Amino acid sequence: MKRQLFQTTDSYAPLIIRVMLGIVVFAHGAQKLIGWLGGYGFSGTMDFFTETVGLPWIIGFLVIVLESIGAIALILGVATRPIAVCYIFLAFGIVFTSHIQNGFFMNWFGNQPGEGYEFFLLWIGMAVSLIFTGAGKYSIDGTISKK
């Protein structure tokens, strides 16, 4: 079981996918966890999730952890497949709680009430790819699977 979970190809493609997805998701996680890049930080984000969106506190907490600590783990190639599975559920959750009503496209011209869900489809596609390939070259998963 451990071997199947951590087994990966020795390819650069999953390396690029996991690092790029990790960087983009980490930027959002840093906003939520520590208030970087114009974010509200942990308390503000938890208040928004629980009071405005109506999520249970544990879901809000898990979103923050997945987008911050999970993104760092993804960049390093640690538990890539489980994190990718969590990211798929997270992206679907974000789409159905916050973006589906705004349609497909992002709000490029400011004429929609909010952002569409196209970004999250790319996120899901990248995560699905990582489930099939594993972490790729230069990953902790690769080191674990070789032992």
TrEMBL record:
Pfam families: DoxX
PANTHER family associated with the record: INNER MEMBRANE PROTEIN YPHA-RELATED, OXIDOREDUCTASE CATD-RELATED
Family note: Belongs to the DoxX family.
Presence of the UniProt keyword Nucleotide-binding in the record: no
Chief place of localization: membrane
InterPro entries, A to Z: DoxX, DoxX-like_oxidoreductase
Lipid bilayer topology: Multi-pass membrane protein
Regions that span the bilayer: 12-34, 54-76, 83-100, 120-140
Name of protein: DoxX family protein
Subcellular location: Cell membrane
Keywords, alphabetical: Cell membrane, Membrane, Transmembrane, Transmembrane helix
Keyword Transmembrane: yes
Protein origin, superkingdom: Bacteria
